[in-house]
Structures are given as structure tokens and as C-alpha cells.
Amino acid sequence: MAHKVGGDEHERGRDTRSRLRELALRLFAEQGYEKTSLREIAERLGVTKAALYYYFKSKEDIVSSLVEDYVAELDELIAWGRSQPRTATTRGEIVRRYLHIVASGTEVFRMLHQNQAAVASLASAKERGELMRERMDALTELLTEPAGTLRDQVRAASCLMSVSYCCMRFQDRAPSQEELEQVVLDVALELADAAPAGSPA
């Protein structure tokens, strides 16, 4: 029984942390990073400031945790890609999985974009930029044939950038999220010279 109680407490803790991040993300996007305080986040969620400090010591910690989750997903994708044969089918699956990661994290990057001046001054900004560059370089390599030319590398990088940019840029213009993702996927697959999901190797 004691083990079950401990498990319940762990689940509640994860739920509280998740709700804190979701609320903070929404407030950062709606009213700005600088105008949102930890006290407001705690009050809106109905917890004490001390309880919030248990999970996050600062607003920067919240931003870092959001970006860290995104980077961890990219790392999983890169590790998977490196374990696969370098084929058009593999490239297609990398593009599809990358699109899913980007689409799921669009709100985080919309918030970062809306608060560029504020978040650029954070201590973690330089490190965050370096982390993303390393992942983009790794994915570009995975989307390029081993003997690929500069043109091939540019096409691969353009594929990744088109996914990242278009998911955020056209989110409010597309008839539906599903249609947007399908169009973005079609264009990205062309750029990566990749096979659609489900194609034979």
C-alpha cells in the first residue's frame, strides 16, 4: 500500500508540474514573459508560491524545461535515424517524425518568438541556440546521402526549416491543423527527396 501512495504522490507531482508549465506557457504568450510573475502563475493555478518553487525556481527554469523536453525528443529522433539504413524511406520517416515533434511544440516556439527580446537576454539563451544548431546539423546530415553535395545539404536544411517555419506561420491560416500538417509534410518530403510514409524500401 505504501508503494501505491508513493506512486500516487509522484503522479500528482507530475500533474502539478505539467499544469504549471501549461499555464505559464499560455500567460507568457498572452501577456508577455516580462509581465508574467511567478506569483501570478501560482495564484492562477491555486497553489502557494512555495509550492511553485518546489518545481521551478524562476521563470527561466520554466522556459528551460519546455525547451529541454523539445530537445530530448529531437535527440530520440536522431538516435533512431542513426540506427536506420540511409534510404529514401528512412528520410521520409525522419521528416514525418520531425513534423510531429514540431507541431506538438509549436506553442512553445510561438511564445519564444513573441518574447524574443526578453528570452534572448536569459543566461540560457546562448546555450539553447547552440543545442538547437547541433540538432539541426545532425538531422540535416541524416537527410543527406553520405556522398551528398552542398545542394543536397541545402535541400535537407530547407526541408527542416520549412517544417519549423510553416507550422508556426500558417497555423492560424489553414482550414485545419490536419490539412496544414499534410501540406507541410508533402512539401518537406519533396525537399528531402524522401519517400512518403508506408512506401516500400
Q: What is the tally of helical segments?
A: 10
In round numbers, the mean pLDDT is 87
Q: Write down the overall geometry.
A: elongated
CATH class division of the largest domain: Mainly Alpha
Count of extended strands:
0
Number of domains in the coordinates?
A: 2
Q: β content, as a range?
A: under 5%
Radius of gyration using CA atoms only:
19 Å
Structural commentary:
The structure is a single chain. The protein has two domains: 57 residues, Homeodomain-like (Arc Repressor Mutant, subunit A, Orthogonal Bundle), CATH 1.10.10.60; 142 residues, Tetracycline Repressor, domain 2 (Orthogonal Bundle). Helix content is 76%, strand content 0%. It contains ten helices and no strands. α4 runs antiparallel to α5 and α9 packs antiparallel against α10. It starts with a helix and ends in a 10-residue tail after the last helix.
Mind sketching the topology for me?
Elements: H1 2-31, H2 38-45, H3 49-55, H4 59-82, H5 88-104, H6 106-114, H7 116-120, H8 125-142, H9 150-169, H10 177-191
Describe this protein with a few key phrases:
mainly alpha, 201 residues, Tetracycline Repressor, domain 2, 10 helices, Arc Repressor Mutant, subunit A, 2 domains, single chain
Offer a quick outline of the entry:
The protein has 201 residues and is mostly helical. The chain has helices at residues 2-31, 38-45, 49-55, 59-82, 88-104, 106-114, 116-120, 125-142, 150-169, 177-191.
